[in-house]
């Protein structure tokens, strides 16, 4: 009943696309039965979680928040969700998101935008964006509709919504969580991770999600560390790098202040703070907005009206007409924009000028981080350049929307673990997030620095 009440409350935020409280109850009962028999409980035993509707769930509609997948019910379960069920978790429902995870505000969803549970202080009643693309996940966890949810992060989609709603989210090293059964956006960047109330819950959930999967060719064949057991907020002997290129001209004063607060907190925890340089930072955003759409345009070719979900078959139409009608009707405007950009940068005439160049920039960005990590153990920066903006604020200007990802995309391009932790409220009473970026495979270092901040 409590689950059902929460799901009804979720209606006001539009966080869920489909509710499955019976599955959460089933997991809770299975856990109770184990407890009664004195059997060991799973690491997530009985915990009801929200599942971003980008993960394929057997027998439950999986849409990526797109009309083109409406009514698609997979026969198979994604590896990450299966890992969570194996650990004893139960699914409360499928969470809303930006269509195909493309967006930073959850406003590109076919199923309507999600509303953040937060409001600005001072009488302004504007509905705020929960961030994106994991906006259903951030809103649901922030409103305490569920204790934790899955997210995916291609260029910030776990960290930015976590920052906007005062929760914690970690994108692990690329390859830690299997991409098998996750609707693909940009395969060389996509990575799943937990979004939860605090660092400890993220550590527990990430342990349950991660692991080698032979079904994903880029899966990391490494054991999953015991991150929860390794949590330690004592940073004595650790060096924290502050990248000077992130302190951009015209940086919001409140963001700069929260960054300074974070530096002070990490010093209090025993860390030494060092100045570092990531010289190619300013090219990260343009490189990302070439590489991500290029991969997306290729990944989205599979939605043809034959294999999944929607099929528009006009009277007397042939195969080509069916493809065109289905895709014209099924994809939203942002998805079409990405397909157009992606096919353009991959076209024979422009491949070298754009796609190839962006790949070179990506290598330089990865090298910047490698060099920086010879001087420090983790990097501290803001998660985003602003607190949550109002719904509708940026929808008419895609570039201003993309600019919100400026601090998130470098770690994505380099495949590094990165987390957003809450770092207090701004003068309007809205949460701000701080980002910790770690060395490849060093989720532990990231979690520990996060623990020192929270
Ligand atoms: N906001 C970025 C984009 O629209 C990142 C999205 C994501 O990480 N899935 O591409």
UniProtKB/TrEMBL annotation:
Complex formation:
Heterotrimer of A, B and C subunits.
> PANTHER family under this entry?
GLUTAMYL-TRNA(GLN) AMIDOTRANSFERASE SUBUNIT A, TRANSAMIDASE
Q: Cite the GO molecular-function annotations of the record.
A: ATP binding; glutaminyl-tRNA synthase (glutamine-hydrolyzing) activity; transferase activity
Highest rank taxon of the organism = Bacteria
> By its UniProt entry, which InterPro entries does this protein fall under?
Amidase, Amidase_CS, Amidase_dom, AS_sf, GatA
Enzyme class, UniProt record, top EC level:
ligase
Gene Ontology cellular-component annotations? glutamyl-tRNA(Gln) amidotransferase complex
- Name it: Glutamyl-tRNA(Gln) amidotransferase subunit A
Active-site positions, per UniProt? Answer: 52 (charge relay system), 133 (charge relay system), 157 (acyl-ester intermediate)
Task: Report which reactions are catalysed by this protein.
Answer: L-glutamyl-tRNA(Gln) + L-glutamine + ATP + H2O = L-glutaminyl-tRNA(Gln) + L-glutamate + ADP + phosphate + H(+)
List, alphabetically, the PROSITE patterns matched.
AMIDASES
